[in-house]
Design goal:
This protein has one domain: P-loop containing nucleotide triphosphate hydrolases (Rossmann fold, 3-Layer(aba) Sandwich), CATH 3.40.50. It is built from eight helices and nine strands. A hairpin with a 2-residue loop joins strand 5 and strand 6. Helix 1 packs across helix 7. The protein is globular. It starts with 15 loop residues before the first strand and ends in an 8-residue tail after the last helix. The model has no long low-confidence stretch (mean pLDDT 90).
Length: 214
């Protein structure tokens, strides 16, 4: 599918797309491509309590905050979702997302199924997309093809993938990444269809409703 979005009409309110999929399903590849071709689509920058690494930029790679500040944001309801990973906290700040949506921009949020459930509770209008592999065996094959992980890590990732896949029935859209080109088409079609919904274009409707021919 070749998208020509040169005459794109920005919606009155953007969409929050929550993308989930087990490790090895190719969800990050789909997200990166969509960010390149769909206008006014951005990626949510997470907040974290871990230290900044060489080469990282605050506000670009992550919002680096103290543990006290992170806890304060959670207590005040300023996180759409959050979790602790290996002793560090990670989360999605609510205010930048809400500001983007109100301006007509849209946001992609790539998180796990548990985080997705938190986002749906906080923002029920979020569009939930689950990226599926053609099979569990395909995930293991892809993980081995990377040649970067030990056997123990591969088996752990496969086990984690099985757990993540149990949640796919709670999502709005399922994209099967069997063939990458087809998966890109499926994924981008979901984004575009959601952004063309009439409910997001009241100002466009108002330009034509009540207009009669001469």
């Amino acid at each position: 599918m070749s998208l020509d979005l040169s005459t794109w009409t920005r919606p009155d309110r953007g969409a929050l797309f929550v993308v989930t999929g087990a490790s090895g399903t190719g969800k990050t590849t789909l997200v990166k491509k969509a960010l390149q071709v769909v206008p006014r689509l951005g990626f949510s920058v997470s907040a974290t309590t871990r230290g900044i690494r060489v080469g990282e930029v605050d506000g670009q790679d992550y919002h680096f905050v103290s543990k006290d500040r992170f806890a304060e944001m959670v207590d005040q309801g300023d996180m759409l979702e959050h979790a602790e990973v290996y002793g560090n906290s990670y989360g999605t700040p609510r205010r930048p997302v809400e500001a983007a949506l109100a301006s007509g921009d849209s946001i992609l949020l790539e998180i796990d199924a548990q985080g997705a459930a938190q986002v749906r509770a906080a923002m029920p209008e979020a569009v939930m997309i689950f990226v599926l592999p053609p099979s569990i065996e395909a995930i293991e094959t892809r993980l081995r093809y990377r040649s970067t992980d030990s056997e123990e890590i591969i088996q752990r990732r496969v086990a984690d993938a099985r757990l993540q896949l149990q949640h796919c029935g709670t999502f709005d859209y399922l994209v099967v990444n069997d063939d990458l080109s087809s998966a890109h088409d499926q994924f981008q079609a979901v984004l575009v269809a959601e952004l063309r919904k009439r409910s997001r274009h009241d100002s466009l409707v108002s330009r034509f409703v009540g207009v009669s021919g001469s």
